[in-house]
């Protein structure tokens, strides 16, 4: 099972956090910090797996991460997941984001948190992998956007929008 | 066209985010956020009804603020309102807010459930998916109660869309995780199994995940999934199928599904049906073959996906552990990976090989890779990989390669990362002991450990080397010589001083013949380290000095001078001061004979499980990394796998009618702690020289701390000569009224055990593993003296709790005074009857006899064990034999207060496991009963029924007598 999915940048600023087990807000923030600390001190080109931090269950859990330019994508999983499988899942996630946002960059994640959550929800649900086929995911996301467009068209009025 | 165009976001949100990003300081950011929160709050509270778009925008802002780490304490209601909107966008943002921000015990759940219910019955697949996602993400018990029956219906309904089926499968899986008792198997189970044949691979993948989890819960119900899974897997790996749709990932056919199917098969033993088994073997061979083919793409994703399947196949081969050819092929494949340029593969290969090393078929094959693994230890840049290499070396170690492996680990230790040093130290210590052929090598190894990584050598490690040296004559001389040499180093670690002090104190005489290590030189060497050491070490050294006085009368003067110095006699530390005073006095007044007896060499330690191994197990969690083949395989067996530990008939050891009479014969196991020396008494001649006692700085690993730190070593007793003990004349205690102990003592260790008009008996006790110590206080409630006071303990023949040592030496108890007796207790094997304390004294001319049962019950030897829900249920299942379970349904005798019950279970000794039982009103506990002969794992579950004022208590342990006894004891408590 996937326990948490975290995205943060090279300075440790969280860009997305999704926990599939309940922690209180403080602990969640601490887990993000701890995970950043563990992951960021590692060299490039070392392996992509390491034991989880103490807050999220220590050696029972494993952190599987990839580092892309300015962002770290970290999945915290228990022993029932295949490490390489999750590594590929991260790749699918990023490729999907790339397709959806066209050359995705950190700013896209900042300004469209809700979209990123929605895309992730098409892939992972309640800590379990839902869909791994990128085309399928994009079809779903497209369908959502169409619905959204049609609704925005009706609702958004040209006015001071703050 | 990009699916999300960048311009169409909400402008207000974008502006807010930009503002935050432009903030120069944390304060400015907080200020801006507070301003925004106030704005949103007023908007939400305002009279003007907000349109859906604004609500959505504000909720998005709140989400962003939450992500930055700020608490959000409002907006929940607005989010819930959004759920009932008909607009997709509004509904969606509402669900998003709830799945990120609402935790499972929110009081809004019933409102949310309502909205979910509407969406589930809407027949709109998008809305249904949103609702299912929400259930899966929140996963609370209320939701499980509301939807555990509905979700399976959606899952197997003929007209459900594929995407909804996928979501429903995972949603059900999540509910089963959080509330397994609410997910009831039904006629839907067979239909779920048939989802493995579904056209849509996404549905199959989700269903496989679901079945894997459910099969662990009730393997029988899902047995038919094995043949379907094999068939499906076979179609994928042979690429015969054309129904792979888009599930080919970088030229690998459906890698995720393959991985999941292989995981599912690991829930079951190898298929019995020959045809299915043959087909599976074929699949596994094909997967292994593919690894040798040239890659179809240079992209790392291609090899990743391919290897994900391969590693899972290898796991399955290891799990089945039945096909020697496959095991060896798997091992060779992993061997190739050990040298692969991808770090990830090296890491995983090392890890998989660890489990492979424990199979008898492949242990030898794993060993052939030793050089590569050692090389990995030396040259890997990544500490996680090096750690796996250490694990593997430990797992592959046996008698043939122990010396090499230990040597390599030792040399690695000098440069090892700090984070893993302690673990390596423990591993080296265990291997060195386990595979020691000659103990000189063992001693050298441990001393090297201390030299290279003294800070990481825990007490257990150095206790253990001392135990072994004491128990083995042949190594004592060598040990003395070696520590003597090691102590020559100008700077040596304090742990070395401890070992050195102890060993020279015991065996220094064995090397004293050599003029280079004469007694005086030995003493000077030790004493040169004295001032640099901490208090416990100094205390130990003082004990070594007094032992020297006995071993070498010629240095007596020198040592007495040291003891007499102000820095000792007036040391600020009471422990050191007391030792100096007592030792000095002892050396002055005792004759050589007495000295020789008191300071005799330590008797051998009883053999028991290595404390180091226990420590490593604690560190790594149970079931990991035991080098012993059989044990490791036991841990891995899952459903229908092998091994159920059969309860062996208890080998009862001594019942030992231990009364005061034994005081004058030799105590059964004279431990260092059983020392009673009166050094102040005027009447030295009364010293009972026939009792062999020995002074030792470390008595026993379990008690050593007390001895080192509490000054329990020498106990001055004022009136030894008055010991004449009156053996009870009317010794037939059966006629005495026997007071049972109050049942609260089952869960408590301290309190008043017995009271009448004359006497009060109080207790304080502590238990650790199979040992215990009980302080018994006798209080005289009258104003008259009790004469000829005597207390003794009788263990009945059937009793295996074993009183090792006690003292009670005051024949009189003054009016209003209290005296104390100490009992050391060892649990030899599981037992039922409690020992009886007999007290006899004369009060105003009449002889009083009192007999009370001591509250020493089996559960006192409980060590709590924390475990996850998954572990718990796995073990629970493993202990499924009818004689291992004992159940009792009984009426509550006390009020059924949750907190009180919790406290009682913890007092009983088990770890109270929160969140394991799906029903929060039930209590679940786990622990291990330690006895000298064996350890018995115990699981317990207590289900209260408030309406009926009843409880149901279920105990499962590996031994029927233990289950029964614990159930009896605990049932009395509620």
TrEMBL record, chain A:
Name recorded for this polypeptide: AP complex subunit sigma
PROSITE patterns linked: CLAT_ADAPTOR_S
Family per record: Belongs to the adaptor complexes small subunit family.
AP complex mu/sigma subunit domain sequence ranges: 1-147
InterPro entries named among the record's database cross-references: AP_complex_ssu (IPR016635), AP_mu_sigma_su (IPR022775), APS3 (IPR027155), Clathrin_sm-chain_CS (IPR000804), Longin-like_dom_sf (IPR011012)
Protein's cellular compartments: Cytoplasmic vesicle membrane; Golgi apparatus
Pfam families: Clat_adaptor_s
Keywords: Cytoplasmic vesicle, Golgi apparatus, Membrane, Protein transport, Transport
Record-level GO BP terms: Golgi to vacuole transport; intracellular protein transport
Function: Part of the AP-3 complex, an adaptor-related complex which is not clathrin-associated. The complex is associated with the Golgi region as well as more peripheral structures. It facilitates the budding of vesicles from the Golgi membrane and may be directly involved in trafficking to lysosomes. In concert with the BLOC-1 complex, AP-3 is required to target cargos into vesicles assembled at cell bodies for delivery into neurites and nerve terminals.
Organism: Salmo salar
Membrane topology category: Peripheral membrane protein
Protein's UniProt keywords contain Transport: yes
Source organism, top-level taxon: Eukaryota
TrEMBL record, chain B:
One term under GO cellular component: AP-2 adaptor complex
InterPro entries per UniProt: Adaptor_Complx_Large_Subunit, AP2_complex_asu, ARM-like, ARM-type_fold, Clathrin/coatomer_adapt-like_N, Clathrin_a-adaptin_app_sub_C, Clathrin_a/b/g-adaptin_app_Ig, Clathrin_app_Ig-like_sf
Signal sequence region: none
Basic and acidic residues bias spans: 627-637
UniProt keywords, alphabetically: Cell membrane, Coated pit, Endocytosis, Membrane, Protein transport, Transport
Family matches, as Gene3D superfamilies: 2.60.40.1230, Leucine-rich Repeat Variant, TATA-Binding Protein
Main localization, broad class: membrane
Pfam families: Adaptin_N, Alpha_adaptin_C, Alpha_adaptinC2
Composition bias, Polar residues: 639-649
Domain Clathrin adaptor alpha/beta/gamma-adaptin appendage Ig-like subdomain: 743-855
Compartments, as annotated in UniProt: Cell membrane; Membrane, Coated pit
Residues reported in the UniProt entry to bind a 1,2-diacyl-sn-glycero-3-phospho-(1D-myo-inositol-3,4,5-trisphosphate): 11-12, 43, 53, 57-61
Membrane topology, as annotated: Peripheral membrane protein
Keyword Transferase applies: no
Chain spans, region Disordered: 616-649
GO function term, MF aspect, one: clathrin adaptor activity
Any one GO BP annotation for this protein: clathrin-dependent endocytosis
Family designation: Belongs to the adaptor complexes large subunit family.
General function of this protein: Component of the adaptor protein complex 2 (AP-2). Adaptor protein complexes function in protein transport via transport vesicles in different membrane traffic pathways. Adaptor protein complexes are vesicle coat components and appear to be involved in cargo selection and vesicle formation. AP-2 is involved in clathrin-dependent endocytosis in which cargo proteins are incorporated into vesicles surrounded by clathrin (clathrin-coated vesicles, CCVs) which are destined for fusion with the early endosome.
Record text on subunit structure and interactions: Adaptor protein complex 2 (AP-2) is a heterotetramer composed of two large adaptins (alpha-type subunit AP2A1 or AP2A2 and beta-type subunit AP2B1), a medium adaptin (mu-type subunit AP2M1) and a small adaptin (sigma-type subunit AP2S1).
Protein name: AP-2 complex subunit alpha
Species per Swiss-Prot/TrEMBL record: Hucho hucho (huchen)
């Amino acid at each position: 099972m996937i326990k948490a999915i975290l995205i943060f940048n090279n300075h440790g600023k969280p860009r997305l956090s999704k926990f599939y087990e309940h922690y209180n807000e403080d602990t969640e923030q601490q887990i993000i910090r701890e995970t950043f600390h563990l992951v960021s001190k590692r060299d490039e080109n070392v392996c992509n797996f390491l034991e989880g931090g103490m807050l999220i269950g220590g050696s029972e859990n494993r952190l599987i991460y990839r580092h892309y330019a300015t962002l770290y994508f970290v999945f915290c999983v228990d022993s029932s997941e295949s490490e390489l499988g999750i590594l590929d899942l991260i790749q699918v996630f990023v490729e999907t984001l790339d397709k959806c946002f066209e050359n995705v960059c950190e700013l896209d994640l900042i300004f469209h948190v809700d979209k990123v959550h929605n895309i992730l929800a098409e892939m992972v649900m309640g800590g379990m992998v839902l869909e791994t086929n990128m085309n399928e995911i994009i079809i779903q996301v497209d369908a959502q956007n169409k619905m959204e467009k049609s609704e925005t068209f009706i609702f958004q009025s040209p006015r001071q929008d703050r | 066209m990009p699916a999300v165009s960048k311009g169409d976001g909400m402008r207000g949100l974008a502006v807010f985010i930009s503002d935050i990003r432009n903030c120069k300081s944390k304060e400015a950011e907080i200020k801006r956020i507070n301003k925004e929160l106030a704005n949103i709050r007023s908007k939400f509270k305002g009279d003007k009804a907000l349109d859906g778009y604004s609500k959505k925008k504000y909720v998005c802002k709140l989400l962003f603020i939450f992500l930055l780490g700020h608490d959000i304490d409002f907006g929940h209601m607005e989010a819930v309102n959004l759920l009932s909107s008909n607009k997709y966008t509004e509904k969606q943002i509402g669900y998003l807010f709830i799945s990120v921000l609402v935790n499972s015990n929110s009081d809004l759940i019933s409102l949310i459930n309502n909205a979910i219910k509407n969406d589930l019955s809407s027949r709109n697949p998008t809305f249904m998916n949103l609702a299912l996602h929400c259930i899966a993400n929140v996963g609370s018990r209320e939701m499980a109660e509301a939807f555990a029956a509905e979700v399976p219906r959606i899952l197997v309904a003929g007209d459900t869309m594929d995407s909804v089926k996928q979501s429903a499968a995972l949603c059900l899986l999540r509910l089963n995780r959080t509330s397994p008792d609410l997910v009831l198997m039904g006629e839907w189970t067979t239909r779920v199994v048939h989802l493995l044949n579904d056209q849509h691979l996404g549905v199959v993948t989700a269903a496989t995940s679901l079945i894997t989890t459910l099969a662990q819960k009730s393997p029988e119900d899902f047995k038919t999934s094995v043949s379907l899974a094999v068939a499906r897997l076979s179609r994928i790996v042979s690429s015969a199928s054309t129904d792979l749709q888009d599930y080919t990932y970088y030229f690998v056919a459906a890698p995720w599904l393959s991985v999941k199917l292989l995981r599912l098969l690991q829930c079951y033993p190898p298929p019995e049906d020959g045809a299915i088994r043959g087909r599976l073997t074929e699949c596994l061979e094909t997967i292994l073959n593919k690894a040798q083919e040239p890659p179809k793409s240079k992209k790392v994703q291609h090899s990743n996906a391919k290897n994900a399947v391969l590693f899972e196949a290898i796991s399955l081969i290891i799990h089945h552990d039945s096909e020697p050819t496959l095991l060896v092929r798997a091992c060779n494949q992993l061997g190739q990976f050990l040298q692969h340029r991808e770090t990830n593969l090296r890491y995983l290969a090392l890890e998989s090989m660890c489990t492979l090393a424990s199979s008898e078929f492949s242990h030898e094959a794993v060993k052939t890779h030793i050089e590569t693994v050692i090389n990995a230890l030396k040259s890997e840049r990544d500490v996680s990989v090096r750690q796996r290499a250490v694990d593997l070396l430990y797992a592959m170690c046996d008698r043939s390669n122990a010396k090499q492996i230990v040597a390599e680990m030792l040399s690695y230790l000098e440069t090892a990362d700090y984070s893993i040093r302690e673990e390596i130290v423990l591993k080296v210590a265990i291997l060195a002991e386990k595979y020691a052929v000659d103990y000189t090598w063992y001693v050298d190894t441990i001393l090297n450990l201390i030299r290279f990584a003294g800070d990481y050598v825990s007490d257990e490690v150095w206790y253990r080397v001392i135990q072994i040296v004491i128990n083995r004559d042949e190594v004592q001389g060598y040990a003395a010589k070696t520590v003597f040499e090691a102590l020559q180093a100008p700077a040596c670690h304090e742990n070395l001083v401890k070992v050195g002090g102890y060993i020279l104190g015991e065996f220094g005489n064995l090397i004293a013949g050599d003029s280079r290590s004469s007694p005086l030189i030995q003493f000077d060497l030790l004493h040169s380290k004295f001032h640099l050491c901490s208090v416990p070490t100094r205390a130990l050294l003082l004990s070594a000095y007094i032992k020297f006085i006995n071993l070498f009368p010629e240095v007596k003067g020198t040592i007495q001078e040291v003891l007499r110095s102000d820095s000792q006699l007036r040391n600020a530390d009471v422990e050191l001061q007391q030792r100096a005073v007592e030792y000095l006095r002892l050396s002055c007044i005792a004759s050589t004979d007495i000295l020789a007896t008191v300071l005799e060499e330590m008797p051998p330690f009883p053999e028991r499980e290595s404390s180091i191994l226990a420590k490593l197990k604690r560190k790594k969690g149970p079931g990991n990394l035991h080098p012993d083949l059989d044990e490791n395989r036991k841990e891995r067996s899952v459903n229908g796998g092998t091994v159920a530990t059969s309860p062996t008939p208890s080998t009862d050891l001594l019942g030992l009618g231990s009364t005061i009479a034994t005081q004058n014969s030799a105590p059964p196991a004279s431990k260092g702690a059983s020392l009673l020396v009166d050094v102040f008494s005027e009447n030295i001649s009364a010293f009972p020289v026939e009792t062999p006692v020995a002074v030792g700085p470390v008595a026993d690993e379990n008690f050593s701390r007390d001895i080192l730190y509490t000054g329990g070593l020498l106990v001055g007793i004022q009136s030894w000569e008055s010991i004449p003990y009156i053996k009870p004349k009317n010794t037939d205690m059966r006629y005495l009224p026997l007071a049972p102990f109050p049942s609260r003592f089952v869960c408590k260790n301290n309190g008043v055990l017995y009271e009448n008009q004359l006497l009060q008996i109080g207790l304080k006790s502590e238990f650790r593993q199979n040992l215990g110590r009980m302080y018994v206080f006798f209080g005289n409630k009258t104003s008259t003296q009790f004469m000829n006071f005597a207390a003794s303990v009788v263990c009945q023949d059937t009793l295996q709790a074993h009183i090792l040592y006690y003292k009670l030496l005051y024949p009189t108890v003054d009016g209003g005074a209290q005296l104390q007796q100490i009992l050391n207790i060892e649990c030899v094997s599981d037992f039922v009857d409690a020992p009886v304390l007999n007290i006899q004294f004369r009060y105003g001319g009449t002889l009083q006899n009192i007999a009370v049962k001591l509250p020493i019950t089996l559960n006192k030897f409980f060590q709590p064990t924390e475990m996850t829900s998954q572990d718990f249920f796995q073990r629970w299942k493993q202990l499924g034999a009818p004689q291992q379970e004992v159940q009792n349904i009984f009426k509550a005798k006390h009020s059924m207060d949750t907190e009180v019950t919790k406290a009682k279970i913890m007092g009983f000794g088990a770890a109270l496991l929160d969140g394991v039982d799906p029903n929060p009103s039930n209590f679940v506990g786990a622990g291990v009963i330690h006895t000298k002969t064996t350890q018995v794992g115990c699981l317990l579950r207590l289900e209260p029924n408030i309406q009926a004022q009843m409880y149901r208590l279920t105990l499962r342990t590996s031994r029927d007598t233990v289950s029964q006894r614990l159930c009896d004891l605990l049932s009395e408590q509620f």
